[in-house]
Hints:
mainly alpha, 2 helices, extended
Amino acid sequence: MLNKRTNGILLNLNDAERHYLNRFCERYNINNRAKFIRETLFSVIIQQTENDNPKLF
């Protein structure tokens, strides 16, 4: 069961950033930009969190 997303954030981009995001999404047939940004953001967060955790060996 998926949790309903009720919390929003506002992301402001300049013209060049918006242009490149739109071009990337068109090139790779990404229809849901919000999902793409969310997945990309959390992949970086998870990777950084794993890198920050101390290693036992």
